[in-house]
Amino acid sequence: MTHSQASGPQHGLSRRDVVAGAVAGAGLAAVGCSSPSSSSAAASNTNQPQPSQPTPTIMTTQAAPHVLPALPYADTALEPVMSAKTFSFHYAKHHKAYVDNLNNLIKDNAELSAMSLEALIKKVAGDSTKAGVFNNAAQVWNHTFFWNSMRPGGGGAPKGRIADKINASFGDFEKFKAAFSDAAKTQFGSGWAWLIEDGGKLAVVKTPNAETPMAQGKKCLLTLDVWEHAYYLDFQNRRPDFITAYLDKLVNWEFAEKNLG
Ligand code: MN
Prior knowledge:
minor pseudopilin epsh fold; 3-stranded antiparallel sheet; 47% helix; globular
């Protein structure tokens, strides 16, 4: 169970880490999310993310080996709600292990190794012979999306276009909060609560284990990890308090709005 030896060629900050971190810091990802046809443009512009071209995805790699993206803030930035100790396990061990497991599982599969993380997840979703690949790949994507769904000083009611969408879809912000809290509380066992856009309306959904609405082509706007490893060090068994703290103090509404596209 040592994690200190794992790194191999990905040890330290690769260029992709740096780019992914810079992009994540801007609240959106413009790297590695575009179609292969744009790769020449990206190659001529290696260290310059394109914030003018927001995309509804946080996918960070075009092909294996997949990398652990840098956090979009310091590991102390969300304290006291989410402690650096939680990040030291949840990000540095759990998230990293999903990345390492994924790379190991696909290293001899040329087809899967050539795919972007997002395309790979969609490809193996529902394929029982590739459950391990799906679980690890989706957990890589879900966690990167989760880190970006939060920011220091976040939470509370949104403003602007995302607020209009919330009001139109749920009635008002309080009704959205109730729906999201309910989904997060009632996800039995491990899983995720999501705000998604589906058919022009926003909706709250919950998924078990590694399942992700992205695999079904839904547009994800925000997520909350409700696996016990997400909150046990800071909240022990009090999942409802963790959910309230996320909604009141952490939610990154700017990220959600950018994901609307
Ligand atoms: Mn997690």
